[in-house]
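Try this one yourself first.
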């Protein structure tokens, strides 16, 4: 293995980094420039070997700045086949959504989002990328994804708040899965659920 290129530094994306880098000590660890502080917070001992910014090249991949879900979130476009690796700007569970849109079945990307408005702007910018396939951080890849991406961005930009049932269900899903998430995400979920309008 030559390199590990992260889209962002949340727990569910970096949990095996130290183990991988011990097995492949000569591999590079590539991280968005504004995401390095979180590695230390999460206890990752391996230091990045390269900090990425939009326009950088990683083999056949072009780096695209997509801050929002995390401060230094990046996406990767493989220009050979039009595959876009969008990380958690979009999630495809149970359908394609921008991470800023809360869904009761899979709320964790929303609870883990650093800046929802910036995430929506990043998702909108990805509509202009010449892609053929979208691979998200969660869920299956989508061929010919632009119509679904447009719908997701439109929904994210609508300003519509999730309903009470969605908020309550999402809070409980996040609470019940807290053992597999970090405390900040679980706490955010409970606050979201407990601060709903009466």
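Now uncover the answer:
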């Amino acid at each position: 293995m030559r390199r590990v290129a992260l889209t962002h530094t949340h727990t569910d994306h970096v949990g095996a980094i130290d183990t991988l880098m011990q097995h492949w000590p000569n591999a590079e660890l590539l991280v968005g420039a504004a995401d390095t502080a979180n590695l230390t917070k999460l206890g990752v001992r391996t230091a990045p070997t390269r900090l990425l910014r939009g326009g950088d090249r990683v083999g056949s991949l072009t780096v695209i700045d997509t801050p929002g879900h995390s401060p230094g979130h990046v996406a990767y476009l493989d220009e050979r086949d039009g595959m876009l690796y969008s990380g958690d700007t979009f999630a495809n569970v149970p359908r394609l959504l921008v991470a800023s849109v809360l869904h009761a079945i899979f709320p964790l990307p929303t609870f883990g989002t650093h800046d929802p408005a910036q995430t929506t702007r990043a998702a909108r910018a990805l509509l202009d990328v010449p892609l053929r396939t979208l691979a998200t951080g969660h869920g299956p890849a989508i061929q010919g994804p632009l119509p679904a991406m447009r719908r997701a961005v439109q929904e994210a930009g609508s300003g519509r708040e999730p309903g009470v049932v969605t908020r309550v269900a999402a809070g409980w899903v996040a609470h019940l899965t807290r053992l597999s998430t970090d405390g900040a995400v679980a706490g955010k979920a409970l606050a979201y659920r407990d601060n709903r309008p009466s």
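Discussion: The first strand starts at residue 3 and ends at 5. The longest helix spans residues 164-176.
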